[in-house]
Every structure is written in C-alpha cells, then in structure tokens.
Design a protein that fits this description.
The chain is an alpha+beta fold and 131 residues long. The chain has one domain. The protein is built from 4 helices and 5 strands, in the order αβαβαβαββ. It has a 5-stranded antiparallel beta sheet with strand order 2-1-3-4-5, with helices on both faces. It is globular, with a radius of gyration of 15 Å. The protein starts with 6 loop residues before the first helix and ends with a strand. This is Ribonucleotide reductase subunit alpha. It comes from Vogesella aquatica.
Length: 131
C-alpha cells in the first residue's frame, strides 16, 4: 500500500496501479442543517461544526488531471462554493461504471457516514483527516 500525502501523490499512485484507475470526486460545502440550534450557528460562524453537503461530483481518469490546481480551477468554473473535496479510486471500467460508487460516496457524505475511507483535501490542496 502506498502512503499518499498530497494530491500529486494520489495521482502518482493511481497512475502506477496495474489496472487503469478512475478517480471519483465529491466537492462539498460546509453548511448548517435546517433545524440547527443557536449554539450551532455560533460555532459555525466561528468556523467550527456544520455538515458537509455535496455541491458537485465528477469522475476522471488520472490522465485527465495534471495537478490539484487544474482540478480546483475546473471545479470552481462549475460551482465555486466547495470547501472540501473527497476522492476515491476504482478500477476504470468507464464513466458509467463510476455512477454507482459515486452515488454511494455522496450518500455516505450526506448521511454522515464513515468518510474516513476517502481521501479529502481542502481548497488549498492540503489533505484533511476525518475521524
């Protein structure tokens, strides 16, 4: 298993796999849930708490990605509200084969499931860790 410390490391690891890879991306914004309490709103305003809501999802092959800056630029052109991007890799059987895993990834995020199985990066491309 390859340790991945940044987005370029992810691209390198994906390109080195025996089977071609497809990378799944879920771009999320931080927001408050509809029935939040005043204390939660205060924490949110201070940069803490909230929930992650997917605003954009896409799948790409490693060959379609030069680096994180290009990914960020492309995502911003579609929806600049994102603050966190979750990434998963699957064997590349084509874009339509990515639909199921991408939907499950989004559902996991929306329901507050275990996102620790995904890599996550902030807007600056720095890796994030969710416990």
């Amino acid at each position: 298993m390859t340790a991945i410390h940044d987005f370029n490391g992810l691209l390198q690891a994906a390109r080195q796999q025996a089977a071609p890879q497809r990378l799944l991306f879920a771009f999320c914004q931080r927001c408050l849930h509809d029935d939040h309490q005043p204390a939660e709103a205060e924490r949110f305003a201070a940069g803490e708490g909230g929930i992650l809501q997917p605003v954009l999802c896409v799948d790409k092959t490693p060959a379609e990605l030069a680096d994180f800056n290009r990914l960020q630029h492309d995502a911003d052109a579609l929806d600049p509200r994102w603050e966190v991007v979750f990434v998963a890799a699957i064997d590349d059987s084509g874009s339509t084969a990515a639909d199921g895993p991408l939907k499950r990834m989004i559902q996991t995020i929306q329901t507050g499931g275990d996102v620790a199985r995904y890599l996550a990066f902030n807007r600056a491309g720095q890796p994030l860790r969710f416990l």
